[in-house]
């Protein structure tokens, strides 16, 4: 499968996640809801990692990879905690688009920190995402 196929599947599952999370967080603490979801993700991904691991396995992870992946995990956890708190007090149809402002931020961060080109298409697309998120949020 191509990166586009995986990206579209990611978007589909993210949409399903938002709806299920909104239903699941009703009447319970958002931190507890995040902990339950995160626990499921941890068990599921470790099972996948062990079932599909390459021959080299964990030996290929450098110290730098560990550090960056741990930091990425912490950022993910903070993102999920904020997302669940937002879902608990706001409508999913407004929370999810604001959460997707991350796409515009990734375009900027990719250019600043990864040396990815900032093209006219990316700039216009990012601005449209921002405009769409704001339009949905203030409706």
Topology:
Elements: H1 3-24, H2 30-51, H3 63-89, H4 92-99, H5 101-113, H6 120-138
Helix pairs in contact: 2-3, 4-6, 5-6
Question: What does the model show?
Answer:
Helices cover about 80% and strands about 0% of the residues. With about 140 residues, the protein is mainly α. It has a domain of about 100 residues. α2 runs antiparallel to α3, α4 runs antiparallel to α6 and α5 packs antiparallel against α6. It is globular, with a radius of gyration of 17 Å.
Short description:
With 139 residues, this protein is mainly alpha-helical. It is built from 6 helices and no strands. It has helices at residues 3-24, 30-51, 63-89, 92-99, 101-113, 120-138.
**Percent of residues in beta strands:** under 5%
Low-confidence stretches: none
Helix content: over 70%
Major β-sheet annotation: none
Which class do the helix and strand fractions yield? mainly alpha
* Mean pLDDT across every amino acid position: 92
The rounded distance between the terminal residues' Cα atoms is 38 Å
The helix count comes to: 6
Principal-axes geometry comes out as globular
Radius of gyration: 17 Å
How many β-strand stretches?
0
What pattern of helices and strands is seen along the backbone?
Answer: HHHHHH
Search tags:
139 residues, mainly alpha, 0% strand
């Amino acid at each position: 499968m191509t990166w586009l196929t995986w990206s579209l599947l990611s978007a589909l599952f993210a949409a399903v996640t938002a709806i299920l999370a909104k239903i699941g967080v009703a009447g319970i603490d958002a931190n507890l809801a995040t902990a339950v979801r995160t626990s499921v993700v941890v068990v599921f991904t470790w099972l996948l990692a062990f079932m599909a691991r390459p021959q080299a396995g964990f030996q290929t992870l450098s110290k730098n990879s560990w550090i960056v992946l741990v930091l990425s995990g912490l950022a993910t956890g903070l993102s999920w905690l904020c997302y669940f708190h937002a879902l608990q007090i706001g409508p999913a149809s407004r929370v999810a688009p604001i959460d997707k402002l991350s796409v515009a931020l990734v375009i900027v961060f990719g250019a600043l920190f990864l040396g990815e080109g900032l093209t006219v298409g990316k700039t216009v697309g990012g601005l449209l995402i921002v405009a769409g998120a704001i339009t949905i949020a203030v409706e």
